[in-house]
């Protein structure tokens, strides 16, 4: 991490877990544990139906609320979908875009991801743009090329004036929910590559201001080492975020002295 230039961000992706009736108790346990993390932006991304309950539960804290997805259209006949403006009106500040589960299970493409990034920015949401490779692609040694393609596609048409609202999350697909984790050196190598791509597109000043997160089985045991890397500025946390004490341990690991 390098706090001189950019924010540390720890975001929880609850996926399709938790119940609205459980959020208050979760928040009451997490808030005192996370209170000392003054140099860390903390985000909770629950399912859509839980956003109002999460907003209420965390309203007296520094913890922001985000969403896990959005539809790229402003409004219309899209049964079951949620727009960026609806999320913004609810008080959400962040939205996860392009998660591998959305790509693999629901057919999202790089083009769809790009449209969603623009919709989020239009509604003043902060996109957390996910990129990452499968185990097979990693074995083929095309990680950097694939992540570069995903990132360039996601950012197509995004003006420099809006780039600083974007957060990028490197999530190796082979590590998500498996218990396998990229080594700190591997996470740093890809994060540095991502920053180099942004530098080439938007210049050095913008690149050094963008927060790049690691996602993929980050937990209380490995968080400190991963977050010690100069280009890893936080984490997008799945399963470990469902237990307040475990999530707080990751937040505290992110609260280490700036590098």
From TrEMBL:
Its EC number is 5.3.1.1. SUPFAM superfamilies: Triosephosphate isomerase (TIM). CDD domains: TIM. GO terms for biological process: gluconeogenesis; glyceraldehyde-3-phosphate biosynthetic process; glycerol catabolic process; glycolytic process. Substrate binds at residues 13-15, 177, 217, 238-239. Pathway: Carbohydrate degradation; glycolysis; D-glyceraldehyde 3-phosphate from glycerone phosphate: step 1/1; Carbohydrate biosynthesis; gluconeogenesis. One of its GO terms (molecular function) is triose-phosphate isomerase activity. It is found in: Cytoplasm. Its main location: cytoplasm. Keywords: Cytoplasm, Gluconeogenesis, Glycolysis, Isomerase. GO terms for cellular component: cytosol. InterPro entries: Aldolase_TIM, TIM_sf, TrioseP_Isoase_bac/euk, Triosephosphate_isomerase, Triosephosphate_isomerase_AS. It catalyses: D-glyceraldehyde 3-phosphate = dihydroxyacetone phosphate. The active site is at residues 99, 171. It is an enzyme of class 5 (isomerase). Involved in the gluconeogenesis. Catalyzes stereospecifically the conversion of dihydroxyacetone phosphate (DHAP) to D-glyceraldehyde-3-phosphate (G3P). Homodimer. Belongs to the triosephosphate isomerase family. This is Triosephosphate isomerase. It comes from Sporobacter termitidis DSM 10068. The lineage of its organism: Bacteria, Bacillati, Bacillota, Clostridia, Eubacteriales.
């Amino acid at each position: 991490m390098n706090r001189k230039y950019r924010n540390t961000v720890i975001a929880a992706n609850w996926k399709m877990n938790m119940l609205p009736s459980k959020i208050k108790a979760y928040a009451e346990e997490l808030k005192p544990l996370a209170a000392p993390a003054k140099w860390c932006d903390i985000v909770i991304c629950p399912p859509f139906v839980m956003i109002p309950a999460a907003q209420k539960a965390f309203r007296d804290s520094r913890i922001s609320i985000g969403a896990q997805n959005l539809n790229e259209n402003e409004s219309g006949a899209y049964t079951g979908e949620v727009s960026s403006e609806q999320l913004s009106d609810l008080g959400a500040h962040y939205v996860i875009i392009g998660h591998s589960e959305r790509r693999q299970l629901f057919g999202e493409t790089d083009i769809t991801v790009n449209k969603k990034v623009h919709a989020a920015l239009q509604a003043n949401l902060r996109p957390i743009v996910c990129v990452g490779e499968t185990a097979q692609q990693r074995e083929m040694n095309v990680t950097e090329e694939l992540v570069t393609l995903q990132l360039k596609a996601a950012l197509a048409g995004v003006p420099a004036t809006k780039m600083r609202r974007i957060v990028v999350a490197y999530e190796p697909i082979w590590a998500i929910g498996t218990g396998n984790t990229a080594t700190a050196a591997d996470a740093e190598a890809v994060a540095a590559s991502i920053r180099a791509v942004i530098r080439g597109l938007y210049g050095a000043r913008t690149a050094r201001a963008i927060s790049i997160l690691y996602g993929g089985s980050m937990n209380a045991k490995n968080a400190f080492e991963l977050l010690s890397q100069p280009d890893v500025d936080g984490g997008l946390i799945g399963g470990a975020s469902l237990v307040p004490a475990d999530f707080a341990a990751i937040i505290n690991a992110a609260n280490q002295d700036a590098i």
